[in-house]
Design goal:
The chain is mostly helical. The protein is built from twelve helices and no strands.
Length: 259
């Protein structure tokens, strides 16, 4: 089939949609090179804000904390969420409906409510706030998102390939590692990427569960923009945008190079 050229109005509409999404990001990147500290209008070109950013110990510490929390919470939430999705998809047990409903509650309740409830829980058990409490909180709200994505993948899963594996002599564990997991791996990876992104971006729940010395990047950025959005904040945002585009590029073109 030959490709059809979209009508002019559709191309204009598409251009306006992309401009609406990416024009503010482009402005942010441009103003990260602005010499004016107030960042109200363009004054001149400089990379001094990037140099200042890389020598800001508080930003570097917040970045380290953010990556530690995101990586650990993503790994744990992905394992638990995948197991929960498999259990809910394959088995029916007493309290199944309640278990399914409770699992997805963190997805629909406001983050403020969950943040306050986690803070009250940690205070009740007298658990010191810090990176550990932030990580546990991120695991708690990431599990449902992973489970949702993996369950969507399991809906089209063909159980006959597992039966064929066990007919050929493989036990349940080998069948899971060599047949089931590779088949649902796209869903598992998608859930992990979603959990990682949510953890990097979270502010509200982190605000309630953070303690002294456990400031993450969203908390640090908010403290930096309380009075004004300086070029240093723009520089930090630009670096994160660049990292995201690099990851997207790798995810898009790496599979094509293998085929």
């Amino acid at each position: 089939m030959s490709e059809k050229t979209p009508p002019l109005w559709l191309r204009i509409y598409t251009f306006l949609v992309y401009a609406y999404i990416y024009l503010p990001i482009l402005i942010l990147v441009i103003f990260s090179f602005n010499t004016q500290k107030l960042n109200i209008h363009w004054e001149g070109f400089t990379i001094a804000w990037y140099d200042k950013l890389f020598h800001d110990s508080q930003v570097l510490l917040a970045t380290r904390n953010t990556l530690i929390v995101a990586i650990v919470s993503t790994l744990v939430a992905t394992i638990i969420g995948t197991m929960a999705a498999l259990a809910l998809q394959r088995y029916r047990f007493r309290g199944y409906g309640l278990s399914e409903t409770v699992l997805y509650v963190p997805v629909v309740i406001p983050e403020v409510v969950m943040g306050i409830s986690l803070l009250a829980f940690f205070a009740m058990i007298k658990f010191t706030l810090g990176l550990v409490t932030i990580t546990l909180s991120h695991i708690a709200f990431n599990i449902p998102f992973v489970a949702l994505v993996v369950r969507a993948r399991l809906h089209g899963f063909d159980k006959t390939i597992e039966e064929a594996s066990m007919d050929l002599g493989a036990n349940e564990l080998i069948t899971f590692w060599r047949v089931t997991l590779p088949t649902i791996m796209p869903g598992v990876l998608s859930g992990a990427m979603l959990a990682f992104t949510l953890s990097l971006d979270d502010y509200v729940i982190t605000y309630f569960t953070a303690g002294p010395g456990s400031t993450t990047l969203p908390l640090r950025i908010y403290s930096m923009v309380r009075f004004a959005v300086t070029p240093e904040v723009n520089a930090l945002s630009t670096i994160w945008i660049l990292i995201v585009f690099i990851l997207l590029f790798i995810g898009e073109y790496a599979p094509r190079r293998r085929t």
